Amino acid sequence: MRNMTILVVDDDPVIRRMLEKRLEKEGYEVLIAEDGYQARKILPQQHIDVVLTDLMMPGSIGGIEVLDIAKSISPNIEVILITAHSSVDTAVEAMKKGAADYLEKPINFDELFLRLEKIANVQSIMRNALDLSQAMDTTESAAALTIQNLEIRTAELQSRIESIESILRDEQNPPYERIYKVLDLLEQTDPTRYPK
User: Which domain holds residue 90?
Assistant: First the structure.
């Protein structure tokens, strides 16, 4: 569960350092962006599972914009917003746009780790579901091919049986001649294609 890569985006160096140390201690791989502009450069170049971003940052790329950038790169990137109490309404609006969750400052690390565990569990379930879906597609494809081959073989055998029946009912030829014709027809059958 701890093999997720987390991008921390915050203009406060103390918060960045604190988040980096605590997340690394828990076994997460951590990347750092000092602001939204740096996050915009990092996101397309690295595999990121979770973005942990401050909601309010200087410049025109704040937490909402980082959310938009992350989701435009991959809908599977989860975004958790860090917000001051006064910005909770904005964080709730961000969740409507696809943010996974938000945390109020000061950060409660127990809450943060619970949210990250939840995201890791959901991602694991999604990967397992995708693997299962692909396995089912492969199985269905193989089953369809087997059924198709059996239908072709059945049609060929049915045709051969009808030919044999027609030969045996043909009373214009003597019985021994009919038997020879049937034996000739049977010898034409590839024994490896139609095993006993």
Answer: 5-107
